[in-house]
Specification:
By secondary structure, the chain is of the alpha+beta class. It has eleven helices and ten strands. 30% of the residues are buried.
Length: 454
């Protein structure tokens, strides 16, 4: 009797562990069956017609994880019984996550006009007319062998509107479909050319045909947030203004930096920058180099006569960096490209102003209560130089992975254009540097003369 109890406990323990193992396997299988897909591409058309706004959407069915699609023997999608599940998926993932506006008025939830399954090889969404005809056309044969996770859900949504010439906006809240969601949205207005948008994640409210003031406000906000989100730009500004905190010096340095980055930002936005894959990592490496140089200059010695030239020269490089953040957003400008460029620049300047208003008093407090000015500048600059040096090495390593540019006729022509622009810039610097040096000498003589008076 004494030996049976341990044996009984052993068998019970084994059964409990076996049962737990089965439960874990079942949970793992359920989790794998509902994994969030890594990359999801959504295609959509928006077209106003009379008193109705048509929205055509194509979504991979694998992204619709909370819908039970009916299957038959072999795990194939049961197309004969799938209509209810398809409309449920369209309601859950599309109707409830698309906010559409006519002017400032949000439209009522869409009516699901059609919902069908398409093969992964279908190419009807290459145009609006083909997509609409396909969605309204014959459905797939009921006996087709298609796994539900391989299919595409095509949906036609209808919104009642007042007029097809109204201003329309859309907020696609589709980021939950996958880890990385790309939305190819095409707006087909009644009496204008089609507009194409490439959106990612949750892009917020997208105005399909913005007015100039709407584009202006949007790009001022984009520029403002871009400068605040860029750690390298902020460190460069800190290095620039750290030794010069007087109003006149700050105005001169900030103006030089603004003029420099405005030139290259506008030139790059108009298509004059190289398009090779090597160019963005090259610019990012040069931006890190600019921080290292300015920090080292702060440590060994600095002069206002040279600092504004440094701000202008490196502003040209940072302008190219700003343009990378602008490229994806220019699609939101509509017909107001120049207005949007100006607004983006204004947003950057407002961001710089906010940064300067915060940095200057903070530096004054540090140099007054923590360390004297010269020692404080050296310590802060050394820390920034160390950080930027590692950025520069990491970015140079990325740059080394790309092949060098091919010097064909187009590349040479582009290089000549930038060479001419560089010569014009050098001429401007030479023209401005002379009078500026003269004024600085006069002010120095005046200050010396005042100190020599009894």
């Amino acid at each position: 009797m004494m030996n049976k109890k341990p044996a009984l406990r052993t068998r019970c323990s084994f059964r409990i562990h076996h049962f737990a193992f089965v439960i874990l396997l079942a949970c793992a299988a359920a989790a794998s069956a509902h994994d969030i897909p890594a990359d999801v591409r959504v295609q959509a058309y928006v077209r106003p017609a009379g008193q109705r706004l048509n929205v055509l959407v194509r979504v991979p069915m694998i992204a619709m994880r909370e819908v039970d699609f009916p299957t038959r023997n072999g795990g194939y999608l049961d197309l004969a019984r799938a209509d209810s599940a398809l409309r449920n998926a369209a309601k859950l993932w599309l109707v409830d996550n698309l906010e559409v506006f006519e002017g400032d008025e949000r439209l009522a939830p869409a009516i699901i006009s059609h919902a069908r399954v398409s093969l992964p090889s279908d190419r009807s969404f290459e145009s609006y007319d083909r997509a609409a005809a396909h969605i309204e056309g014959p459905k797939l044969a009921a006996d087709m062998e298609l796994y539900w996770s391989h299919g595409l859900l095509d949906v036609m949504l209808e919104y009642p509107i007042h007029a097809e010439t109204s201003d329309f906006s859309i907020h696609p809240k589709l980021a939950r479909l996958g880890l990385q969601v790309a939305i190819a949205l095409r707006f087909v207005p009644a009496k204008a050319t089609m507009r194409v948008f490439e959106l990612h994640g949750d892009p917020g409210l997208v105005r399909l045909d913005p007015r100039w003031h709407q584009a202006f406000v949007r790009f001022v906000e984009l520029g403002f947030m871009h400068i605040l989100d860029g750690a390298d730009h902020l460190l460069f500004l800190l290095c620039l203004i750290m030794p010069f905190r007087k109003l006149r010096a700050l105005v001169l340095i900030a103006t030089a930096f603004t003029v420099g980055h405005s030139i290259t930002l506008i030139a790059a936005a108009l298509g004059y920058a190289p398009s090779g894959l090597w160019f963005p990592p090259l610019v990012e490496t040069l931006i890190a180099s600019s921080i290292v140089y300015t920090a080292l200059e702060n440590m060994v010695g600095y002069k206002l006569q040279r600092r504004w030239i440094v701000a202008f020269a490196f502003g040209l490089v940072h302008g190219l960096g700003f343009s990378f953040g602008l490229q994806q957003s220019l699609q939101l400008a509509g017909e107001h490209l120049v207005t949007s460029l100006l607004a983006f620049n204004i947003g950057i300047e407002l961001g710089q102003l906010v940064v300067l208003l915060a940095m200057v008093p903070l530096l004054e407090l540090v140099f007054r209560f923590v360390a004297n000015e010269r020692m404080g500048i050296i310590i802060i600059s050394a820390f920034i130089a160390h950080t930027a040096w590692h950025w520069m090495l990491d970015r140079a390593e990325v740059l080394g992975k790309f092949p060098p540019p091919a010097w064909d006729a187009a590349a040479l022509a582009n290089a000549v254009r930038w060479l001419i622009l560089g010569l014009v810039i050098c001429a401007i610097i030479w023209f401005l540097a002379g009078p500026l040096r003269s004024r600085l000498r006069e002010r120095r003589r005046e200050s010396l003369g005042k100190t020599d008076r009894p």
